[in-house]
DNA sequence: GAGTGGTCTAGACCACAAC
DNA sequence: TTGTGGTCTAGACCACTCT
């Protein structure tokens, strides 16, 4: 038997998702639900608060609770860890570190991370392999002032993304997904220079400080980003 | 002054994000926090429950609460409403309905929506324009058994995606993002057939029933998907 | 058995909205 | 003035974990 607050939440969720309650419609008042379920106000409140934090309803002090207007195509998209993706499909993951250098932040690299010119960056280029075949080309910059331990990490053995995820908590990130011709990545990827590729860029910050920038190029013919997800807070 | 449960939550969040508490570390017990803040257990419980539902900590009955292992690059990506995107950038939105037909579900279309062969689908093709210039090409299928009102909607005036979002609640969706050559979309988009394009596919369900499938092709040189977001539940 | 979190009660005071 | 939701208290019983 599910907890009462969960059953209350589920019952209201069902009425919204079935269409019985539409956007803007009123949810029963807390005291009505108390009477319906024969429980205390805290229990009802917990159910409604959960629905509100999930975005299914809007609560207004002094007015009541209402079904929320549907959100605009907000989607939870899993941006996968490359090694995990490859291994999950039963392939052997391989990593080839092509270049590693410490560079000043006064050039184009520094501009990408929006850093002052006197900082030092670790610049990495590597190729991710699936069954020894090129899968993705990655160019990464790491702000050494924010992550000094990265200077000693072995990025020929551990993918930079996996290493950072395990070592550095982040608070803000930005993704950009574009399609482009392979261009410079054509050689390492083993495709034609005009081949359509999926380009994933990510900027990551921790408490306002830039941590890393990464640009990953995938062969469009072999890679896609997919995500299955449930509607607003349906878990 | 923020509510007490929010301040407690914020204080713990800060300790996790600053790195003071790392993955697997123990969060103070509820009774310890009660003593620290001089409040009741319900208040502490509300703070910790919120952190747990945000994925920052894991709570285990009989053991305690612990900092969660960081999630694998899970990101909230906003898949934008095309009309809103164009208008938000200050351009004039235009829509050209190229084709509209009701088709049986016994062909390739039915397979895309995974529907029985006896169902009827509404098949639409349209071009989204920004300042009268082609911006994206959309091919859509709508399950008329699930959304009969769509048969009467004016999709020459309202983009199908906007119409559906406003009229039909969904519970499950799946996205697939790929890069591909323009191919058939080259003509309507006004680009070369080999031009790299971003292809966004979406399947949408409502309580297990297919609602719609859409495949949208964007000119890679003019379009990108971006998302700025905060870490696990940081609002 | 002692300690943990999960749930629930029956009150209370407050800020805010509508009348 | 009345009613709403937001917050908080000081208890309680339970299921579970660890020893």
Automatic annotation (TrEMBL), chains A, B:
SUPFAM superfamilies per record: Chorismate lyase-like (SSF64288), Winged helix' DNA-binding domain (SSF46785)
CDD domains in alphabetical order: WHTH_GntR
Lineage top rank: taxon: Bacteria
Cited Pfam families: GntR, UTRA
Keywords, in A-Z order: DNA-binding, Transcription, Transcription regulation
Residue ranges constituting the HTH gntR-type domain according to the UniProt record: 2-70
Name of the featured protein: Histidine utilization repressor
Name of the gene: hutC
């Amino acid at each position: 038997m599910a907890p009462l607050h969960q059953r209350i939440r589920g019952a209201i969720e069902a009425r919204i998702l079935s269409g019985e309650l539409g956007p803007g419609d009123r949810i029963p008042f807390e005291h009505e639900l108390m009477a319906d379920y024969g429980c205390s106000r805290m229990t009802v409140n917990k159910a409604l608060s959960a629905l509100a934090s999930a975005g299914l309803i809007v609560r207004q002090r002094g007015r009541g609770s209402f079904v929320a207007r549907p959100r605009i195509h907000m989607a939870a998209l899993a941006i996968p860890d490359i090694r995990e993706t490859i291994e999950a499909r039963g392939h052997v993951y391989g990593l080839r570190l092509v270049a590693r250098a410490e560079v000043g932040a006064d050039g184009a690299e520094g501009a990408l991370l929006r850093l002052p010119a006197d900082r030092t960056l670790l610049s990495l280029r590597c190729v991710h392999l699936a069954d020894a075949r090129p899968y993705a080309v990655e160019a990464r910059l790491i702000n050494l002032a924010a992550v000094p331990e990265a200077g000693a990490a072995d990025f020929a053995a551990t993918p930079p993304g996996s290493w950072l995820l395990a070592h550095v908590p982040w608070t803000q990130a930005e993704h950009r997904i574009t399609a482009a011709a392979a261009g410079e990545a054509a050689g390492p990827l083993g495709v034609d220079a005009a081949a359509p590729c999926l380009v994933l860029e990510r900027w990551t910050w921790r408490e306002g400080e830039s941590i890393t920038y990464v640009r990953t190029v995938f062969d469009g013919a072999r890679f896609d980003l997919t995500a299955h997800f449930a509607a607003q807070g349906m878990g």
